[in-house]
Design goal:
- The protein is an alpha+beta fold.
- The chain has two domains: 33 residues, no CATH class; 88 residues, K homology (KH) domain (GMP Synthetase, Chain A, domain 3), CATH 3.30.300.
- The strands form two sheets. Strands 1-2-3 form a three-stranded antiparallel β-sheet. It has a three-stranded mixed β-sheet with strand order 4-5-6.
- The mean pLDDT is 97.
């Protein structure tokens, strides 16, 4: 099976330090900081990277499930919103919203919704994040 890797380095203390993150392919490479994670500063953050992974995984899984059911998706566009909140035990990811718009000729909305739910539960990233509530809003365009 495939093994994927990324690396990160943090320098300094939490509020004033900074870091870098890079995937093994170099497709994602950037800086991160306290401000980019907990405020609105420049740079990336772990939650944004989780969101990108989840959106990509869900879109691929959904397209595959639709294809196996006989429907070829023209487009599956997904935005993932990872909510980082502070609770009594500190910061944590409290929920993930998946907002999906699909263009799939020949499919009715009920079938589209059924397969969207299958993808939400079955994509590998959703499985890895199963301890976090995941909300799906899937819209069939056209």
């Amino acid at each position: 099976m495939a093994v994927r890797a990324a690396k990160a380095e943090w320098r300094g203390n939490l509020p004033k330090g900074n870091g870098t993150v890079e995937t093994e392919t170099g497709a994602v490479k950037g800086t991160y900081s306290f401000a980019s994670r907990f405020e609105e500063g420049a740079g990336t953050n772990p939650e944004e990277l989780i969101a990108a992974a989840h959106a990509g995984c869900f879109s691929m899984a959904f397209a595959n499930i639709l294809a196996k059911a006989g429907f070829e998706a023209e487009s599956i566009r997904t935005e993932a919103k990872v909510h980082l909140t502070k609770g009594p035990a500190g910061f944590g990811i409290s929920k993930i919203d998946l907002l999906c718009v699909g263009e799939v000729p020949g499919v009715d909305d009920a079938t589209f919704q059924k397969h969207a739910q299958e993808a939400k539960v079955g994509c590998p990233v959703s499985k890895a994040l199963a301890a976090t509530p995941i909300h799906l809003d899937a819209t069939l365009k056209g």
